[in-house]
Write a structure and sequence with these properties.
Elements (H helix, E strand, L loop, with lengths): L1 H5 L14 E6 L28 E5 L4 H7 L6 E5 L2 E2 L5 H8 L9 H13 L5 H11 L5 H15 L2 E2 L14 E5 L7 H17 L6 E5 L14 H12 L5 E5 L9 H4 L5 E3 L5 H8 L8 H9 L5 E5 L4 E9 L5 E10 L4 E5 L18
Parallel strand pairs: 1-6, 1-7, 2-3, 2-6, 4-5, 7-8
Antiparallel strand pairs: 9-10, 10-13, 11-12
Helix pairs in contact: 3-7, 4-5, 10-11
Amino acid sequence: MLENMLYSGCSSIGSCKEALSGLVLHFSEGGSGAQPCEAAWIGCPKGEDVNSPPVHVYVSHSSYATMKQVYAPLANVEVSPLHFLETELDAQAILSMMALGSSESAPLYMHSILSILRELGEGFTYRGFLSEIDKAKKDMNPAQKAMLSQRLALLDSFVLPEQGRKKSLFRNGQLTVVDLSDPFIDPTSACSLFEIVTRLFVRSKTNAGKFLVVDEAHKYLSANRGDTGLTKALTSLVRQQRHLAMRVVISTQEPTAVPPVLLDLVSIAIFHRFSSPAWWEAVAKRVCADVSAAQGFERVVKLKTGQALVLCPSGLGLFPTTRRTPSGAVVHGKPQVAHFGQRYMLMKTRRKITVDGGASIMALNG
């Protein structure tokens, strides 16, 4: 899918007149055992006659040296520490880092922050906000100060002065990967930072269309935390994507961990082979499918390598037609174009034109 959206002028994989601008959100185990995001291999074509799109990976500055070595085997991939300009941050970014769901359930010190943000209003600046916070800390107890400082310290570590970055995080035809695999960043903090990055991506001025990939979603999204800021942001994007010239792709190996509110908005579901009946039920019951749970699961279990089962109610296909004569005989007519509706489709995946970074490594050779 990424190849078709980023490789233009490559007739062997289809027609793409203009490459899109892409953002991939990735979070996994950090440290020396970290693995590169598979999407970054999109910048490593197999053939020399193919022009690869630029791939820029942004990582946590605290793990920059480690992650640069992790991505070293990937050619044409640039790795940089993730930093935000002060001018890119707004009041919503502060609320994201505070992980504030609603003002009703907020602790007492958070009401002070909300009050400061309201007073600053449209004149919000990051430095001005920090100045007001220092004044408000005088009325807080030690525990409140510690909790506030902990959240702000994480955000402050990702902030640069205006002259710190010369170019935008996003460009036409570029794949931007935000990889927050870091032993010092937990899933909640990663979600807060991803929410800020996603908002910047939506605002970015690009002439091309956009696509957002939520990679390995089960590692930071949670079905039990469907009211998080990132989940709400993704839900809003999916509902408005046709107005934003954007498409959202959610990739997961555990669909039961994805918030149901996102599964309810799925327009295309692609299943590769798996062996858990709960996974089929989690998605199929939220996407129209004219097949029983047992039949659908049996079909998925029997899928071969490279095959996938696709559910797409609004998709178009060529289907046979039949009519019954006055005598009761069934006559087959010409195939007609119609919506898939509750039907499913068996899909065969083509070979990649880029290096397969997710290829299986055998325990035994030969």
